[in-house]
Design goal:
The protein has about 400 residues and is of the alpha/beta class. The chain has helices at about 20-25, 45-55, 70-80, 100-110, 140-145, 170-180, 190-200, 220, 230-245, 250-275, 305-315, 330, 360-370; strands at about 5-10, 35-40, 60-65, 85-90, 95, 115-125, 125-130, 135-140, 170, 205-215, 285, 295-300, 320-325, 335, 335-340, 350-355, 380, 385. Helix 6 (about 170-180) crosses helix 7, helix 7 runs parallel beside helix 9 and helix 9 (about 230-245) runs antiparallel to helix 10.
C-alpha cells in the first residue's frame, strides 16, 4: 500500500443477517489496496464465525474478537490496530458505492485534508447532506465557516455537519488524538464525540456532495426507544465532549451548540416516554422591550425566531406583522406563518422589527443589512435571547 493507505474499521455486534452484504460491498471496491479490521464486539450470534471465514478468504481482512465494549471503544481498538494513515468506518448493516474508496481517496490525495466529509443515502430517497459549500476549507475558514453551526445552527434549528463517521475519511493520527483520553464505555453520541472535536483540531477539511454510503434505514432501526439509563448516557456524552473542546481552548465557542444538541435528544426522550413535546418556547420573548399590541416583525427563523413566534401565538401579546429569514426558500412556513425574503421587509408595515438570533455578531450583521434596506434604525431591536429550558 502507498503512503495514503486506507484502513476500514467495522465494529460488529450480532449482525449475522446483514454482515455479508456489508462486507461484500467493502471488499468488492474498484480500489483494492486497503485493509479491513473487523472488530467483533462480543457478538453471541454467528457473526464471529462469519468474520473468521472472511479473514480466511481475503488476506486484507483482520479480525479482533473483544468483550462487548460498545461501538466507540470497538472503533478505537480497531484504529490502534490499523496500519493505514487514513481511516474510514462502516456499520455492519450498511453498504458502500462500488467506487467509494477510489473516488474519496482521489480527493484525499489531491486536497490533502485531515477530514473528508461526504454525503450518504439515508434510505427511501433521502440524501443526508452537510449544509456547506463543496470544497476545501483551511484552518481560518474552518473556524469561521465550519465550526459555527456544525452541531447546531440557530438559523436552521439543526446541525450543519452530519457527525457520522461512516461518511468520513479521517487521518488516523487525528482520530487517536481525539479518542485517546476517553476511557469510558460510550453508548450515546459515539460519532459526534469524535467528529466535532476532530473538526476543532483539523487544519484542512474537504466537504463533498458525492454520495458514497448507503445507510440501512430499516423499520427496526427507525424505532427509537429510550430506556431511563439513556439520561446518564447523554450526560456522559455532554461531559466528555465539553472536556474535549476545553482541552483545545474552544469550549466557549461551542458550548451553546452542545447544549442545543443535547436538548434535542432530551426532547426525543420526552416525546418517546410521554408522547408530549417540550415547550415550544425555548427562548423567552422580550416583553419588557416591546409594547403590548404592537405590530411586530420577526427577522430570523431559527430556534429563537420560532420561540418568539410561538410566544406571540400563545399569548396574543402583539400582532405578527411578518417574518423573514435569509433561508426563506428552504423554510417557507412555520406554525401557519409564512417566511419571506429579507428584501421584502421594506414593503411591510410594522412598529418594531425584532432580530431573533442568539449570536450578537450575527445580530449586528443583520442590523447593518436592514439599515441598507432603508429600515429606520429606531424600529430595529435585538435583545440577547434568554433560554428558559
Amino acid at each position: 500500500m502507498d503512503k495514503y493507505s486506507l484502513s476500514v474499521i467495522i465494529p460488529i455486534y450480532n449482525a449475522e443477517t446483514t454482515l455479508k452484504q456489508c462486507l461484500d460491498s467493502v471488499l468488492n471496491q474498484t480500489y483494492k489496496e486497503f485493509e479491513v479490521i473487523l472488530v467483533d464486539d462480543g457478538s453471541v450470534d454467528k457473526s464471529p464465525v462469519l468474520c473468521d471465514e472472511y479473514a480466511q478468504r481475503d488476506k486484507r481482512v483482520t479480525v479482533m474478537h473483544i468483550e462487548n465494549a460498545g461501538p466507540f471503544q470497538a472503533r478505537k481498538r480497531g484504529a490502534k490496530r490499523a496500519s493505514g494513515e487514513i481511516l474510514t468506518f462502516a456499520d455492519s448493516d450498511d453498504m458502500l458505492e462500488k467506487n467509494a474508496f477510489e473516488a474519496s481517496l482521489q480527493i484525499f490525495r489531491e486536497q490533502k485534508p485531515d477530514i473528508l466529509a461526504y454525503t450518504y443515502d439515508y434510505g427511501k430517497g433521502t440524501i443526508e447532506k452537510n449544509v456547506y459549500e463543496e470544497g476545501i476549507y483551511c484552518e481560518g475558514e474552518i473556524k469561521k465557516e465550519i465550526i459555527p453551526g456544525m452541531m447546531f445552527d440557530a438559523a436552521l434549528g439543526a446541525r450543519r455537519l452530519n457527525p457520522s463517521l461512516c461518511c468520513k475519511l479521517i487521518k488516523r493520527k487525528l482520530f487517536l488524538q481525539v479518542t485517546e483520553s476517553v476511557k469510558d464505555r460510550i453508548t450515546f453520541g459515539e460519532d459526534a464525540l469524535v467528529t466535532y472535536p476532530a473538526v476543532g483540531r483539523a487544519k484542512r477539511i474537504f466537504i463533498s456532495n458525492q454520495v458514497f454510503y448507503h445507510y440501512n434505514n430499516n423499520e427496526l432501526s427507525c424505532t427509537h426507544t429510550f430506556p431511563l439509563e439513556r439520561i446518564t448516557e447523554v450526560k456522559a456524552f455532554q461531559d466528555h465532549i465539553m472536556r474535549l473542546f476545553n482541552e483545545i481552548g474552544m469550549l466557549d465557542r461551542v458550548k451553546y451548540q452542545i447544549e442545543n444538541y443535547v436538548r434535542s435528544f432530551f426532547s426525543m426522550m420526552i416525546r418517546s416516554w410521554y408522547g408530549i413535546e417540550l415547550s415550544s418556547v425555548v427562548y423567552a420573548f422580550p416583553y419588557s422591550s416591546v409594547l403590548k399590541d404592537a405590530e411586530i416583525f420577526i427577522y430570523g427563523a431559527g430556534i429563537v425566531g420560532k420561540s418568539y413566534i410561538n410566544a406571540l401565538k400563545i399569548t396574543n401579546y402583539g400582532h405578527i406583522a411578518g417574518w423573514a429569514d435569509r433561508n426563506y426558500d428552504k423554510l417557507r412556513e412555520y406554525n401557519n406563518v409564512n417566511i419571506m425574503a429579507p428584501e421584502r421587509i421594506k414593503q411591510e408595515t410594522f412598529d418594531v422589527l425584532l432580530i431573533a438570533v442568539w449570536d450578537e455578531e450575527a445580530a449586528k450583521e443583520i442590523r447593518d443589512s436592514l439599515l441598507k434596506l432603508g429600515i429606520p434604525k429606531e424600529k430595529i431591536l435585538w435583545k440577547k435571547p434568554i433560554c428558559i429550558l
